[in-house]
Write a structure and sequence with these properties.
Blueprint (H helix, E strand, L loop, with lengths): L1 H6 L13 H5 L6 H28 L1 H4 L17 H21 L2 H19 L7 H21 L5 H26 L3 H4 L8 H25 L9 H16 L3 H4 L8 H19 L1
Length: 282
């Protein structure tokens, strides 16, 4: 069972938590029916994303076999057959689409766009400098918008900007640490890394970090939740702590799901969440 959980990359479902942003910031966190719809949206997007991960792994089996981490993935390691992987992918995709349809036409459209853009990324965009990280950021935005469509709330410009810059920050950081840790093997494991340099990723990190901080600060002061400005110190600490992890070449920057191992980050995130809940719902 564990190899199939690895195959569908359950540990990467954290990316889909952005579907809860619209629920949280629209002050509907205590509305049971809307919470239920958002949970279904999360499951739908997660299953669809997992099916995409499987097809991506099928295409990259040879390259993954050369990667120090990815060589342990079920397909690259030969633990699961190609046929079994395809069957699992199709089942997940079908269930995900059925759930999407149950949440309405607009959410289904968002899911289809997510699938189309993910496929375009897998076949073309992940090989192009900057197009790779910008596409990943756009996929984050689509997930956030899908969360708003699932519960039929207004799509704020901030729901687009903040997730976009957050994803860009994380993606650039991952490229930076890949170059630091993998060095000469980086180009073998991810084709686009041939075009990245440490100097360039360092500059991009500075830009994306600045944009993320500014966008959150502007949202905190200009949105209906003006008291949210008081949560800025916690948000700033969390962002800059992750920036430090990237700069120091931490594995957490390559695998954000391991952030639970960094206590300062956990404390920063918890304090930010608590302050945000109090300031919005208090």
């Amino acid at each position: 069972m564990n190899k199939y959980l690895q195959l569908i990359r359950v540990h990467q479902w954290y990316k889909n938590l952005v579907v809860f942003l619209a629920l949280f910031f629209s002050e509907n966190l205590l509305m049971g029916s809307l919470v239920g719809q958002t949970v279904l949206a999360f499951i739908s997007i997660s299953l669809i994303s997992s099916s995409g991960y499987i097809f991506n792994d099928l295409l990259d089996m040879k390259k993954d076999a050369l990667h120090p981490d990815k060589k342990h993935r079920p397909l690259a390691a030969g633990k699961i057959s190609k046929i079994a992987a395809v069957i699992v992918a199709l089942i997940l995709f079908l269930i995900g689409i059925i759930l999407a349809i149950s949440l309405g036409g607009y959410f289904t459209l968002a899911a289809i766009i997510l699938i189309a853009l993910s496929s375009l990324y897998t076949f073309v965009l992940k090989k192009i400098l900057l197009a790779d990280v910008l596409t990943i950021a756009l996929l984050f935005v689509i997930r956030a918008i899908a969360g708003a469509l699932a519960i039929d709330v207004v799509i704020s410009p901030w729901l687009i900007l903040v997730p976009f810059f957050l994803s860009l920050f994380l993606s650039i950081g991952k490229r930076h640490v890949d170059l630091l840790l993998l060095k000469d093997k980086a180009k073998q494991t991810r084709e686009v890394l041939e075009h990245y340099t440490l100097e360039f990723t360092n500059s991009m990190m500075t830009i994306s970090t600045t944009l993320l901080i500014i966008s959150y600060a502007l949202y905190s002061s200009l949105s209906p939740h003006k008291n949210l400005i008081y949560s800025t110190p916690f948000a700033l600490f969390t962002i800059l702590r992750f920036y430090y992890l990237i700069s120091s070449g931490s594995e957490i920057a390559r695998k954000p799901e391991r952030v639970i191992k960094d206590w300062p980050m956990i404390i920063g995130i918890v304090l930010w969440l608590i302050s945000a809940v109090i300031l919005i719902y208090g």
